[in-house]
Amino acid sequence: MKILQTAERVSEQHISDNYVYQRSLLAYFEAAKLISGNVLEIGTGSGYGIKLISPKTTKFLTIDKFESLNITRLQETYKNVEFKKINVPPLSEIPGNAFDYIITFQVIEHIKEDKSFVAEAHRVLKSGGFLIISTPNKKMSLTRNPWHVREYTTSELEKLLLSKFNSVEKYGVFGNEKVMDYYKKNKKSVEKITRFDLLNLQYRLPRWVLQIPYDILNRINRKMLLRSNTSLASGITMDDYYLAKATEECLDLFYIAQK
To answer: What is the pTM of this model?
Structure first.
């Protein structure tokens, strides 16, 4: 099956995704400073992080429930990269104590069995290995995202990781004034849409009912923001984001858990 292209899977090909894409890219950039040895990525997406991660590793196994032709092309350049199509959890066919690092960005919020997900990550890591994970900060979400099973506060993600891991370093992804200007404009735009939800159906209806309408409206909203704020939306770069100690005001949580 080819990769499912929803608004959840950001692409460098769509300028309207730029705000989210650059933010996602920062996670790979920061992880590349830390990793070495054998590395596993859970949730490859289109594989745009491979260019940053692969050169830092001895072996890089990247997995996803969807296949991407882009990853096949990247494997021709980055010879230490292996891709497997796996729906997690569990981490089928992956032995225990095999990896020095696991990276998984913007994935756990989509996983129903998050405790099993964390337990499997712990199982396949070597003793002393690290899980580097990012996920949206629940406190900064603009509305319910029906593609997400759940989102986490700073303390909720820490508690989940500490159920299996020995220690957790808590960082967050923040944005500068340019990023926060876009965030505020995005928030106003979303509020214009959700004001018609007088019965609060976005929180009352099952996720599967809302997913496609949400995805369509999300795409429309991003394109409207691009048209009305072209220089701002397209001008945001990875350098407009930064990592600092996690607070309730960070856009994403970026946690490092050690086995």
So the answer is: 0.92
